[in-house]
Design goal:
The complex is a heterotrimer of chains A (321), B (343) and C (326). Chain A contains 14 helices and no strands. Chain A has helices at 2-30, 33-41, 47-56, 74-83, 97-132, 137-150, 154-168, 181-215, 218-226, 230-259, 262-267, 273-282, 286-314, 316-319. Helices cover 32% and strands 23% of the residues of chain C. Chain C starts with a strand and ends with a helix. The model of chain C has no long low-confidence stretch (mean pLDDT 86). Classes of the chains: A mainly alpha (321), B mainly alpha (343), C alpha/beta (326). Chain A binds chain B through residues 11, 14-15, 18-19, 22, 26-27, 30-31, 147-148, 150-156, 159, 163, 167, 209, 212-213, 216, 255-256, 259, 262-263, 277-278, 281-282, 284, 286, 289-290, 292-293, 296-297, 300-301, 304, and chain B through 176-177, 179-181, 183-185, 187-189, 191-193, 195-197, 268, 272, 275-276, 279-282, 289, 292-293, 296, 299-300, 309, 313, 316-317, 320-321, 324-325, 328, 338, 341, 343. The complex binds adenosine-5'-triphosphate and magnesium ion.
């Protein structure tokens, strides 16, 4: 067990290394610091300005090979700074990135957390319902609804939701943000509603398949033959077994909560990490984007390790096998 | 070679490929039965997909020339090659600004239109016919799906089969590569790639391909591992067939259904991704994503302009819905595991 | 003649497939007696498991019991409300399944699963139930019962798992035990042990057992009476000795002839020509007719009823029942 966790951690560390290497290749080898400077300052910038920009951002080192001081290269610097969360300053406006990320996490979570919880409850419940009534009209209607909602672009949900519920019916403010809890609720309600609608089709289908597969197993038949009622079969037998894939599915989604929702946040004016990313895109701010990708994958890798460990705790076949 | 000629040649190649595939499917009883079953289950969705494909292909066949309209601009409009779809409309089918569907006058200002009552879905901000734009979007959507698959599927097959079949170091390497790519948030990675690579068609498709091959590769690798342990594959090895021969004869054909299902699913995912990229300003010219993005501000106009958004959305929704339905049916027909699960 | 514990007649189970409703079990009649074993034999897919599940009213959807009566100790249970039926399942009728690996819940300890079976039917405290369950474990021959009690199914061997299943089934002293191929998935030596265990339990508790199998060796060893099924119908019913010595129905004969032990050294192993057709292709009349060497035109038209053939014996074949053995 310990050996397994250690091995898992080692592989996680290797993956972090892989991500950093990939980012290095993308942002320093393919797009060189000079490219970045040109994008930031415009094509007609004088060479003098470009070299100042490069120096100011600390990009004025040899790429990966420096015979005089082997540690003084962009590669080493990129690894060192990323791993110590010292992301430096934005390529666009020179603001410290780490500071911004810390400020953005709160608003992002205010949106994504309720979205996550509500979406999960909603789709698990609906999945359970359609799985219980499988092959009936309820099931078929549910599946048609899922495919229909899955086929619309998220952009349309946002535009439609803002227009219908915000502009025409005036139930919710169209966009904005406030730290006061009551106001926050009003601002967050519409994006949460839209977000639940966007994700529920795919999620419900996932949970339905899972439950249908689980209820067709032999041990369910045994439980019924013992005299268990439907409720007991579902709660005591099916759910503990289904929990294993559910947990795997859910834990891996948690990192996405922190990086926020790019579309929802910027459309609804929530000053979270998603909005920050969009600004970075529009401002050609590679440093911020790099930091976001790195943080996102770091969280994802951590969540994956957590899932694997949880998995072994939940499933006796692995825990004791 | 001109772009028009190249595009015409590609269409010819695609049509030949489709005919070849159809012929192959006809010859194999098992495939034929699957194809029949698929058609029996989802005739409408398949027909809709076929319609989109036809429009897209017809929009890719173009040539110079044709009947000149008798206006002042006259023959200069004919200097560029125009596609079959373009030729469904008059060469000078343009107004000065917005006009509502089938309107006689401009939407704002009330000037008389050059083609009163002829724009079935109205015109956009610079007076282009919306129906025409929508039809042209089909080609962009198919281009995104097709080109990206052309990058992603061979890559996934090569690495997936290689890793599953060879095992050892190579497998470790591929597995590491997959884990690394999969651990990055997909939309962020996509955006980063497009920003660095640039926003041309090829670049966007490359970025989509890099983020898209991972899932399929993982499936292919797992399936190959399973196939390698099957009795008849083992038997073929014992009998001394070469690795390449076994992979070609026994492994690849058994991955066909996975690839097909993933392709259809990937296709709808890609088109939806492009919509998001468009909104971030990184999309392709003439795509439905662009139309939707541009139409966003039109909803706040007074009175509002809805036909642009409406047309692009319906076109997009129809394609994605048909693709999703066909993917589901394909999975039911081809994947025996989920088929038994339905009982 | 002893009294019937479970008496089944005209039992019909149908599955809707496309527009048709296939009779997977068709007019089956069975009679289980106290302390006796009835073996139900037949090729794979002939509806043996479905018959057993129907007796528990556990036919999987979209199948349905469409006709027939199921009388448990004189009480009709086919129309019983679901709640009352749950009392009977695992209470008065218990069942053992073929696959001991997948039939136990993989994420719960085996002991807890047996305790659940007890506590579903008796008002008894958890510690008491636990004590009872450990006794049961010892009873079914699980060595080191208290330790094994805490294990998960995957930690036990196939034979032990099947013993757990049996412990679970006999926990409430059921009047009827439905054993659906209890030994098919096991080694030959373990098979013999499990069958011996079932016989021993039957002797001490007087349980009526329906033993489903397609192994005639198992039948010869354990059964008192035998019902032979073909394509959803019982084609012959007789005492075990009589059937094994002189099978009457053409299908029973073919089945026996196909058994390796029946073949004398040097003789060719007989085989039944053709295969069991899937339910969608079943004949209107006798379903064995296409493979039967004695079939006449009438066989394909009308369903042969189970005709009495001597004392306590029935054969669903008018040709065999009428004349001397052809
Ligand atoms: N969901 C279903 N739909 C249609 N037919 C079904 C369904 N489930 C089972 N059947 C049919 O019921 C018939 C009887 O199956 P059953 O499991 O009772 O056979 P069996 O005699 O127990 O075979 P085995 O020896 O393999 O266990 C089979 O022919 C099968 O085709
Ligand atoms: Mg069976």
């Amino acid at each position: 067990m310990i050996a397994f966790i250690l091995r898992r951690l080692a592989f996680g560390a290797a993956t972090v290394g892989g991500v950093l290497t990939f980012l290095f290749m993308l942002f320093f080898l393919y797009a060189t610091p000079e490219d970045m400077a040109r994008r930031a300052l415009g094509d007609k910038a004088p060479p003098q300005a470009i070299s100042t920009w490069i120096a100011n951002h600390g990009y004025d080192r040899p790429l990966a090979w420096n015979p005089d001081a082997p540690a003084d290269t962009l590669l080493v610097e990129h690894f060192r700074r990323s791993l110590s969360f010292d992301f430096g300053r934005s390529d666009a406006d020179g603001m410290p990135i780490y500071q911004r990320i810390r400020e953005g996490v709160g608003p992002s979570l205010a949106l994504t957390l309720p979205l996550f919880v509500l979406g999960l409850l909603f789709s698990v419940a609906l999945g359970l319902v359609v799985a219980t009534f499988r092959d009936s009209y309820i099931d078929r209607a549910g599946l048609v609804l899922c495919v229909l909602t899955m086929s619309l672009s998220i952009l349309l949900y946002i535009i439609g939701g803002q227009w219908l519920l915000g502009t025409v019916l005036r139930w919710f403010p169209v966009s904005g943000f406030d730290t006061d809890p009551a106001m926050l609720l009003r601002f967050v309600a519409l994006p949460v509603l839209v977000g639940v609608f966007v994700s529920f089709g795919e999620q419900t289908r996932f949970y339905r398949t899972l439950f249908v597969e689980e209820t067709s197993r032999d041990y369910v038949r045994t439980a019924r033959a013992k005299g268990c009622g439907d409720g007991r079969v579902m709660w005591r037998h099916v759910l503990p077994n289904a929990l294993i894939p559910i947990v795997t599915h859910v834990v891996v989604a948690i990192p996405l909560l922190f990086t926020g929702s790019i579309l929802l946040e910027s459309f609804f004016g929530i000053p979270g990490l998603g909005s920050m990313t969009v600004e970075a895109i529009h401002g050609n701010d590679f440093a911020t984007l790099r930091a976001m990708v790195f943080l996102g994958s770091l969280l994802f890798i951590a969540a994956q390790i957590a899932t694997d460990v949880l998995y072994t705790l939940l499933d006796p076949r692995i825990r004791l096998g | 070679m001109s772009a028009a000629l190249l595009s015409n040649l590609i269409v010819a190649a695609l049509v030949a490929l489709a005919i070849g595939l159809a012929w192959l499917v006809r010859r194999r009883p098992l495939w034929r039965a699957s194809a029949r079953e698929l058609w029996r289950r989802r005739p409408i969705a398949l027909a809709v997909l076929g319609l989109y494909a036809c429009v897209a292909l017809l929009d890719a066949v173009s040539w110079v020339g044709g009947q000149a309209p008798d206006t002042a601009a006259g023959t200069s409009l004919l200097a560029h090659p125009r596609s079959v779809v373009d030729r469904l409309f008059p060469a000078d089918f343009q107004e000065r600004s917005y006009s509502a569907p089938l309107a006689d006058v401009e939407f704002y200002g009330g000037f008389k239109l050059l083609h009163p009552g002829a724009h079935l879905l109205g015109t956009d901000i610079i007076g282009r016919d919306v129906l025409h734009q929508t039809l042209r979007g089909a080609r962009v959507a198919l281009l995104i799906g097709g080109l990206t698959s052309l990058i992603a599927i061979p890559l996934a097959l090569l690495l997936g089969v290689g890793a599953g079949w060879l095992g050892g170091r190579f497998d470790d390497l591929v597995f590491f590569l997959i884990s690394t790519l999969a651990s990055m948030p997909s939309l962020l990675l996509l955006v980063a790639l497009v920003m660095v690579l640039g926003t041309g068609t090829a670049q966007v498709c490359l970025a989509l391909g890099v983020t898209g091959w991972v899932g399929l590769c993982r499936l292919v690798r797992a399936e190959t591992l399973k196939l390698r342990e099957l009795d008849y594959v083992k038997a073929a090895r014992v009998l001394g067939a070469s690795d390449l021969a076994i992979v070609l004869r026994h492994v690849l054909p058994n991955l066909g259904h996975l690839v097909l299902i993933s392709f259809v699913l990937m296709f709808s995912g890609l088109v939806l991704s492009e919509v998001m990229l468009s909104w971030l300003g990184l999309g392709l010219d003439g795509s439905w994503g662009r139309m939707i993005d541009q139409a966003r501000t039109e909803l706040s106009r007074q009175p509002l302009v809805w036909w642009n958004l409406f047309s692009a959305s319906i076109a997009l929704f129809g394609l994605i819905l048909a693709a999703n339905l066909v993917a589901d049916a394909l999975r039911d027909v081809l994947d025996p595991r989920t088929a038994t699960e339905r009982e | 003649m002893s009294t019937a514990v479970l008496e089944v007649s005209e039992l019909t189970v149908r599955f809707p497939v496309g527009a048709a409703r296939l009779p997977v079990v068709d007019g089956v009649a069975l009679r289980l007696e106290r302390g006796k074993t009835l073996a139900l034999v037949g090729e794979s897919g002939c509806g043996k498991s479905m018959t057993a599940l129907a007796l528990m009213r556990l036919v999987p959807k979209p199948g349905r019991i469409e006709a027939g009566s199921i009388q448990l100790e004189g009480e009709e249970i086919r129309e019983l409300p679901v709640a009352a039926m749950r009392k009977i399942r695992g209470g008065r009728i218990a069942m053992i399944f073929q696959e001991p690996m997948t039939s136990l819940n993989p994420v719960r300890r085996v002991g807890v699963q047996v305790v659940e079976a007890i506590r579903l039917h008796e008002k008894i405290s958890r510690p008491d139930a636990r004590r009872r369950a450990i006794e049961l474990f010892e009873r079914v021959g699980i060595a080191d019962a208290p330790t094994r009690f805490e294990t998960y199914p995957h930690q036990l061997s196939g034979g032990l798992r099947q013993r757990v299943m049996i412990a679970m089934a006999i926990a409430t002293h059921p009047a009827v035990l439905l054993a659906d191929e209890p030994t098919t998935a096991l080694d030959v030596t373990i098979q013999a042990q499990i069958l011996e265990l079932l016989r021993e339990l039957q002797r001490s508790e007087g349980t009526a057992i329906l033993l489903i199998t397609h192994d005639l060796g198992v039948v010869a060893e354990s059964a008192d009476r035998v019902a032979v099924m073909y394509a959803g119908r019982v084609v012959e019913e007789a005492s075990c000795r009589e059937l094994l010595r002189a099978p009457r129905h053409p299908y029973s004969r073919a089945l026996l002839a196909a058994m390796p032990a029946a073949a004398r050294p040097g003789a060719r192993l007989a085989e039944i020509p053709g295969t069991v057709p899937p339910p969608a292709q079943w004949e209107q009349g006798c379903r064995f007719a296409p493979r039967c060497e004695f079939a006449v035109e009438n066989c394909r038209q009308t369903v042969p009823p189970l005709l009495a053939f001597g004392a306590g014996r029935g054969v669903a074949c008018p040709i065999v029942a009428a004349g001397p053995c052809p």
